[in-house]
Amino acid sequence: MRNKEKFIVILKPDGFRRKLIGKIINRFEEKGFDILDIKTETLSVKILEEHYVHLKEKVFFQDIVDYMTSGPVVIIAMEGLNGIEAARMLAGSTNSAQADPGSIRGTWALTIDENVIHVSDSVENGEHEYIRFF
Ligand code: GDP
Predict the structure, then answer these.
(1) Quick one: which atom of ligand 1 is closest to the CA of 54?
(2) Span from the CA of 111 to the centroid of ligand 1 (angstroms)
(3) Alpha-carbon distance 7 to 87, whole Å?
(4) Cα→Cα distances 3→16, 74, 116, 118, 123, Å
(5) DSSP class per residue in 11-67
(6) Predicted structure pTM score
(7) Residue 2 has pLDDT above 80, yes or no
């Protein structure tokens, strides 16, 4: 079925620091996604507490907040056919060590914590994240 979906990509502080912005956006553009909106900013603790509410009780929650506030990020709203599934595959598994070698995490990361990129994981979350970040 041909189904256009909107989703949010966040190029995390490690990706920003390592000057991967162009390379990563290029991967999404080459795949065929359209960029709807793009901006750079340093995320607040407040917005991260909302965004990662499903991880709030984890022992590593503070580590995520420290990492995600450690520098600027690039936030991109994208759209594409079967967008979420295709974009999550392009990102690779959360644990970069297990990510497909052709994926973004598989190419540029080795660990579960500093994994370069966020991609919305459902249509519903894509819509919520669009409102949250734009
Ligand atoms: P995602 O949708 O693939 O990003 O996965 P999750 O929603 O489960 O996790 C959100 C983010 O939390 C991940 O992308 C990692 O940056 C971070 N994270 C997940 N698991 C761990 C962990 O065990 N330790 C640490 N320090 N960070 C983690």
Answers:
(1) 7
(2) 10
(3) 9
(4) 31, 26, 27, 21, 11
(5) E-HHHHHTT-HHHHHHHHHHHTPEEEEEEEEPPPHHHHHHHTGGGTTSTTHHHHHHH
(6) 0.97
(7) no
